[in-house]
Amino acid sequence: MNEFGEYTLLVALFVSVYAMVVPLLGVKFGSEQLIRSGERAALTVFALHTLASVALLNALLGNDFTIDYVYSYTNSELHWIYALTAFWAGQKGSLLFWVWMLGLFTTLVIMQNRHRNRNLMPFVVSIISSVFVLFGLLMVIASPVFERMPFLVKDGYGLNPMLQNPGMIFHPPTLYVGFVAFTVPFAFAMAALLSNRLGDIWIRTTRRWTIFAWIFLTFGNIFGANWAYVELGWGGYWAWDPVENASFLPWLTMTAYLHSVMLQEKKDMLKVWNMTLVAITFALIIFGTFITRSGLISSVHSFGESTVGIYFGVFLVLVTAFSTYLIVSRLPLLKSKNELDSVLSRESTFMFNNLMLLGAAFAVLWGTMFPMISELVRGQKITVGPPFFNQVMIPIGLGLLLLTGICPLISWRKATWVNTRKNFITPLILTMIASAIFFALGANEPLPLFSLTVCAFVTFTIGTEIARGVLARSNTNKENFFKATINLVLRNKRRYGGYIVHIGVVCCFVGFTGSWYNTEVEKTVRPGDEIHIKDYTLTYLKYDSTQPKTTLSEITAWLLVEQAGEKLGYVTPERNTHIMRDWRGGEQPQPTSEVAIRTTLKEDLYVIFASLNQDDSATFKVHVNPLVKWLWVGAFLMGIGGLFAMWPDARERKRFLARHTSAEPGQEARA
Amino acid sequence: MNKAQKKFLAGASIIVLAIGYLIFTGVNASGSYYYTVSEVQSMGSKAKNVFLRLEGSVLPGSIANDAANLKLRFRIVDKSKHSLPVEYKGIAPDMFQDETSVVVEGQLADDGTLIATKLLTSCPSRYDAAKEMKEAS
Fold this sequence. Notes:
The complex is a heterodimer of chains A (671) and B (137).
Chain A: H1 2-28, H2 32-61, H3 68-73, H4 80-89, H5 91-112, H6 121-142, H7 166-181, H8 183-194, H9 201-232, H10 242-267, H11 271-294, H12 308-329, H13 346-378, E1 382-384, H14 386-406, H15 417-441, H16 446-477, H17 481-491, H18 493-514, E2 519-525, E3 530-533, E4 536-549, E5 552-563, E6 566-571, E7 574-581, E8 587-594, E9 596-599, E10 603-612, E11 618-626, H19 628-646, H20 650-670
Antiparallel strand pairs in A: 2-11, 3-4, 4-5, 5-6, 5-7, 7-8, 9-10, 10-11
Helix pairs in contact in A: 1-2, 1-6, 2-4, 2-5, 2-6, 4-5, 4-7, 5-6, 5-7, 6-8, 7-9, 8-9, 8-11, 9-10, 9-19, 10-11, 10-13, 11-12, 13-14, 14-16, 15-16, 16-17, 16-18, 18-19
Chain B: H1 3-30, E1 31-35, H2 37-43, E2 52-58, E3 64-66, E4 71-77, E5 83-89, E6 101-108, E7 114-121, H3 129-136
Parallel strand pairs in B: 1-2, 5-7
Antiparallel strand pairs in B: 2-4, 2-6, 3-4, 4-5, 6-7
């Protein structure tokens, strides 16, 4: 099977080169046949990568330890689900997984556009295929996934125990889907530049792809945070580690793009800016892969330094140079028709939102790269930690949140002060009441109180906005409130999908705010001893030890939890030891701790079994983290809202076709 | 440029300046300096009052864990075999054992012990079986 996989990947590389070059030849010689042939080549690449993936999965599930990758990430005792996830657990496999996803999306794009966008498609296929070529080179030369073991071994080394967690089943693939899917908008944007068709066709074609990528990137980041929270056992979910930042950066710029693109669609503004954002986002995706795989920035996540980083570095330079050249050379064609009419307008809130998101991205990039920057400038490597990111990102985050609330209250183009003031009154009064309630509930320090107040403000502005729409609709159409709400929301999915996302963001900020009141206690106790934290009392009862597998032993501690004298039940944090067996028969114990979390909307009780000591005492670390659950709920809402906004809409399509048939030919002729 | 654009630009500059200010002061407030153990030792008293970040590994046999008081002592050793005592108040991370590669951040006490406020273990670099075997055979 190894040879089969190896040769398949080699053939795929050659076909990728064909798919990259031939569509361009088709454009040059005006041959639709060549263009179609290039498309078929791209489909073939997908088919070949599918075959290679099947071969790899077959080897992983069938414990074929003649393959180095299978040996390094599985063993015969591993549950088949985790053997499956070993596909993307290591670098070599994740490259194949990545390129397979890209092939899947490319196939969808080619099928969707068999009779549409024929002028753009050759460039789109060629640009996507250049990514195929990059990954093809990696998989054939730098990081061959089917590499053989030099001699036979009985069993595999096993999957890192920290990756044996449900979070790890979802986190990497969702993140990859987000990264990979954005290749499509990037390819269309560059194709629009290359073909001088700079109307909004490319934007409309890729709108769903962008939201799709954004939803997955959002979930990818959140799954990562959740995995860190439940598995890494330090009590938090985000540490501003370079690897986390690497996936957060494109999220920030993609979010900016999702907003600014509306100004181009509605108002024909910001054409250059949108192109730039698409290019920056794609470059950041490559950049993130580059810094995490090259070992350039040290991180607690270790991907292992490898030559793979260099390839991504070169590709990053190429992408940046290519897109910069294209945008600059097309500047005269990218002239927007409209300018900003007034600072007091919804347009300007969008622009401020973009500025702040980009500022946030810059700050995160700066902090992540600071060890390198300081070494270049001052000759001294300096690292900045979470305090830096908190100091910069909290004000920016709250500013953005405030804008989210202000935006729906200001009308498009040119708002009047009188009108704006009128819109502000109801939400402001409600917000002041809410703020007083928060204060009474214990949010008595300035920063958390301010944060929660802004959360309330955003909720109320969105609420009044929806209420106004419902009232107007039920008056004119004589519908009851319920029916009016449903119809209102269904008739403009994009808008109300956006509001759902914003409510999700509010929930996330509630979750972030809770961390202000985090408390923790560390204590070494003997059976019968109590640990007190806030109004909780934890009584350590005993521990059990079991050995479910020959490579795994578990020690489970039992603690009784009481809150204000009331018995809540037991928590059972664990300390487990996984035995990793190498090819020489050597055994390396890898201890992991499984935290116990008792979660409510109010707060999480988070118990870590830190150690079982020689004198039979046990050390525990207990956190009480308020409002964490709001973060997971908020992220879920963001996904739902995004899905709602991208759901096909017959009305919108009609509007699009109407505009397309009237306005677009003129624009195309100009090009 | 019309009047609205000028106003927007004014607002934008304020935001940009504010973010720039936050970044600049943030770096000064929370930066910590990468050093190796031997560098710290050759710096003498200059190494005091600076926030240090040291990378190295745990000297085998040097771990003394005082569970009752939650104090962890060990020596961090760098590639040139220089080592430095470290004291960390708190719980050792999961992967912490002899020869684990660690990152510690903190300040030097008068007796030359690094009082660490942060202790991170980086996973041992990916286990590369094929390479190791090729070297062995």
